[in-house]
Amino acid sequence: MAKRHGSYVAPDRMLVRDYLDDWLAGRASKLKPSTLLSYRRDLHRYVIPRVGGDRLQELSGARLEVLYEELLREGGRDGGALSVRTVRYQHSILRKAFGDAVRLRPIQVNPATMVELPAHPAGHSPVARTDVRAWSADQLRTFVAGVEGEQFSELYVLALNTGLRRGELLGLRWGDVDLAGQRLHVRNNRVRVEKGTLQGTPKSGKTRSFNLDPTSLELLRNLRRRQSEQRLAWPGAWGNDDDLVFTHEEGRPIAPDHATKTFRRLVDGLGLPAIRLHDCRHTFATLALQAGVSPKVVSERLGHATVAFTLDVYGHVLPADDQLAAELFHRHVYG
Fold it and tell me: Which segments of the protein form a coiled coil according to its record (predicted)?
């Protein structure tokens, strides 16, 4: 038996897949349901098919490095490459999982601590997104005009105008919308979990609020009026017990995946460049920064933890700040 800090780790034939499944079950009450779903999905998609049959006590850092190289080369869709960012995310999950294994003593050493991680491409920030896609202002206007009267159109327009996440939009209640004060409060997040959907807190864990633009304000006023009419006209029981802003006609909440599929169908029908529903958030941030909105304000509206994160993700879309600074200074001082 192996000795570890005065105690012993008994030999064990447990497989990696069995340990990881047990670990996920043990984390169920400690993680947000959406985080748990993400961990389970990724482990079963990328890790367990490749190293799940290995014995836990025999798993080494070298074996994990081989796993990461395989993922980089052929771990993506249809056997294509997987991004460095995604591979490093798998590593972060395994580091947590095997760290708990050391604490609980099935193993002596965390193999994930002995790995040399794949490097980000030269000049690439560790948090910069390579998959940020955004529409131009003209494309946004084309979409808004083209989806008028379509199912969930207000949901998508508000996503483009505010940068709210899908779950934040689907969790939005009328009590969060101050039509008189022209402000919106982000207090909820409706996410997909294994057994349906769950209403929780925003991703950052913090609430936020901001002013509404005139287009969004008018959109919400019209939607409020129409939803009240639908409630009165609906022959059966109205299903909107949570007073949600965005629902089906009978008041039933919108499933996150259904909102995504409907958005994709509308985009395809208009012949616009294909973007994901989440890219409405990127579109808002990109256009706001290009319009000269302060990165601090954009960061606060998006609910980012820091302005630095916002700049790392979207800094490439900012105007040439150095040249602009020189011109503004000259204009202010010398006219």
Answer: none
Amino acid (1-letter code) at residue 322: D
Residue 268: other Cβ atoms inside 10 A: 10
Which residue type is seen at 319? Answer: P
Residue with tokens 């083209």: 146
**Boundaries of domain holding 76:** 2-114
> How far apart are alpha carbons 30 and 74 in whole angstroms?
32
- Domain membership of residue 266 (yes or no) is yes
Distances (CA, A) of 25 to 22, 29, 62, 199, 309: 5, 9, 27, 21, 32
In this predicted model, what pLDDT tens digit does every residue of 212-270 receive, in sequence order? 999 999 999 999 999 999 888 888 888 888 899 999 989 999 999 999 999 999 999 99
Do residues 81 and 29 both lie within one domain? yes
Instruction: Please answer whether residues 4 and 108 qualify as being in contact, where contact means their C-beta atoms are separated by less than 8 angstroms.
Output: yes
Environment class of 307 (CB within 10 Å of its CB; exposed 0-12, middle 13-18, buried 19+): middle
Length of the chain: 335
Task: Tell me if residue 200 falls in helix, strand or coil.
Answer: strand
d(CA 138, CA 161): 14
The pTM for the full model equals 0.71
Contact predicate 283/140, CB 8 Å = yes
State whether 220 and 87 are in the same domain: no
Asked if 249 and 293 sit in the same domain, the reply is yes
**Alpha carbons 136 and 128: distance in angstroms, whole number:** 20
Average pLDDT score over residue span 20-42: 91
- Give the distance, in angstroms, between the CA of residue 9 and the centroid of all CA atoms in the same chain: 39
Q: Is 151 left (phi over 0), alpha (psi -120 to 50) or beta?
A: beta
245/253 Cα distance (integer angstroms): 9
Can you tell me the distance from the alpha carbon of 284 to that of 290, in angstroms, rounded to the nearest whole number?
10
Backbone angles phi, psi at 191, to 5 degrees: -125, 160
